[in-house]
Amino acid sequence: MSLLEVRGLSRSYRNPRAGARGDGSVTHALRPIDFDLAAGETLAVIGESGSGKTTLMRLLLALDRPSSGTVRFDGREVVAGPARSLRWLRRETGIVLQDPYSSLDPRMRIGTSVAEPLRALGIDGDRAALVRGVLERVGLDPELAERYPHELSGGQRQRVALSRAIVHRPRLLIGDEPLSALDVTVRAQVLELLRSLHHELGLAMVIVSHDIGLVHHIADRVLVMHDGELVEQGASAEVLGAPQHPYTRRLLAAAPRLA
Amino acid sequence: MSLDVNDLVIEIGGRRVVDGVGFSVAAGQRFGLIGESGSGKSLTTLAILGLLPEGATATGSIRLDGEELLGRPDRELAAVRGSRIGTVFQDPLTALNPLRTIGRQLVEPLELHGGLRRSERHDAAVRLAELVRLPDPERIVGRYPHQLSGGQRQRVAIGIAVACRPGLLLADEPTTALDVTIQAEILALFGRLVSETDASLVFVTHDLAVLSQIATDVLVLAHGREVESGPVEQILAAPRHEVTAGLVAAARATSWRPAEGGAA
């Protein structure tokens, strides 16, 4: 069975001033989309501003309600609702966002931030030991648990954000542009870390990005989104090697490449 | 226009953040400054413009066509900025005034430096909008920044930068905030404007792949110091310094290029 099963999922918004402006009354942020993600598989969602990739991510995490369709995680339907009703989904998922500085509370010690999901999810045991272990796993000195975010470099902060996303051992990691804010040498290190987490922990990943390089280096499969529509999906080697849709070709042709 | 920077030292609170940087850009040359956060690339750009933050001091020499800029009073530098040096920064939204029309902003340098008359405003704005390939120039000059897309806004910022036909165009991460297809269009626009107007270009970026598309020569900076310089192809193919080798290796490990004979 698929870990994630997405069927007919869409999201549209009514345009409040549509009548006055005389244009269409509905904005289709995401047109109906179907895809599956197997356990331990890495899926990249690529597209530019307005492609619907963030809308899709929000729906996968039940941060928004779909206009139609369903998301199933391990067979169980994901339905947006009160936090209590979603605790099971939070246990199974971890999230890494683009900017590690704004995703960490500046007044909270690193160790407290990383332990927060454990407390919120009611995971007992030696939390301090779990935090030290996960910090080591992402290549950080466990002593950093005593520090504050402003004392860390950008790369260290993104490692902390990653450790926080996996401390509760989720089966799915969702990343929204996880490398975009990093310097290139740090980017290479964090990319390598993501790959090793994927291989060693058998973590499935959905990586939302506009960065073809990241997609090429990490993804088994790719969804290409444009203007709220899924224009192409397939194995990443196939989509990048022989793109079928004109938009995919345009996107790949535009990607800056080293001479 | 040629630019010669020699032994540039920038200090902030007694700390050397740029330490003895020097490079020369010949008239019509496309030159890149590359480095990671804290390498001093943006401060070097600001020093050329005489726009260093409060408390920062610069020594050394910055000559534009042989004429020393460093140490000149701000009033004189203000006359150089916008007329002889055009500047484009990363975020076009913060560079534009939200309350003024696109047209007014496009021609502002011409009013300040070129004595543009009120009656000539509209036509000059439309010509600039055409130059940077904005869609529907006649209409767009009457619009406001929030009504434009990110790529269109950056075209406006570039239009403002080249309004007075400056001899030197200074661009600091001008495509970093843009989508990849828009980035490609903006890079092409820079290339075209530089060759059409015969201006020199100093392009600041952290992205080697972007750099290799726009610049012919490059200076690599790290922690405020020069690491190495030379033609972009040479730096990519045979970096001599370990910092450069690290940058190139990291860029190759994170970037994508189509396979030989690939469709893209």
Describe, in plain words, how this protein is organized in 3D.
- The complex is a heterodimer of chains A (259) and B (264).
- By secondary structure, chain A is an alpha/beta fold.
- In chain A, the strands form 2 sheets. Chain A has a 6-stranded mixed β-sheet, with helices on both faces. Chain A has a 4-stranded antiparallel β-sheet with strand order 2-1-4-5.
- In chain A, helix 5 packs parallel to helix 7 and helix 6 packs across helix 7.
- In chain A, a hairpin with a 2-residue loop joins strand 9 and strand 10.
- Chain A starts with a strand and ends in a 5-residue tail after the last helix.
- Chain A is globular and about 55 Å long.
- With 264 residues, chain B is α/β, with parallel strands linked by helices.
- Chain B folds into 2 domains: 181 residues, P-loop containing nucleotide triphosphate hydrolases (Rossmann fold, 3-Layer(aba) Sandwich), CATH 3.40.50; 64 residues.
- Chain B has a 6-stranded mixed β-sheet, sandwiched between helices. A 4-stranded antiparallel β-sheet of chain B has the order 2-1-4-5, covered by helices on one side.
- Chain B is globular.
- Chain B starts with a strand and ends in a 10-residue tail after the last helix.
- Chains A and B meet through helix 8, helix 9 and helix 11 of A and helix 8, helix 9, helix 10 and helix 11 of B.
Short account of what is shown:
The complex is a heterodimer of chains A (259) and B (264). Chain A has helices at 18-21, 53-60, 87-92, 100-103, 110-120, 127-137, 154-166, 184-201, 212-218, 236-241, 246-254, and strands at residues 4-14, 26-37, 42-46, 68-73, 76-77, 93-96, 172-176, 204-209, 221-226, 229-235. Chain A has 259 residues and is an alpha/beta fold.
Mean pLDDT of chain B: 92
Helix content of chain B: 25-40%
State the shape of chain B.
globular
How much helix is in the residues of chain A?
Answer: 25-40%
CATH architecture of the domain at 4-13 and 37-106 and 170-254 in chain A: 3-Layer(aba) Sandwich
Name the helix and strand elements of chain B from N-terminus to C-terminus, one letter apiece: EEEHEEHEHHHHHEHEHEEHH
Tally of helical segments of chain B: 11
Structural class based on helices, strands and sheet pairing of chain A? alpha/beta
Which sequence of SSEs, written as H and E, runs from N to C of chain A?
A: EHEEHEEHEHHHHEHEHEEHH
Keywords (chain A): ATP-binding, Nucleotide-binding, Transport
Family (chain A): Belongs to the ABC transporter superfamily.
InterPro entries (chain A): AAA+_ATPase, ABC_transp_ATP-bind, ABC_transporter-like_ATP-bd, ABC_transporter-like_CS, P-loop_NTPase
GO molecular function, one term (chain A): ATP binding
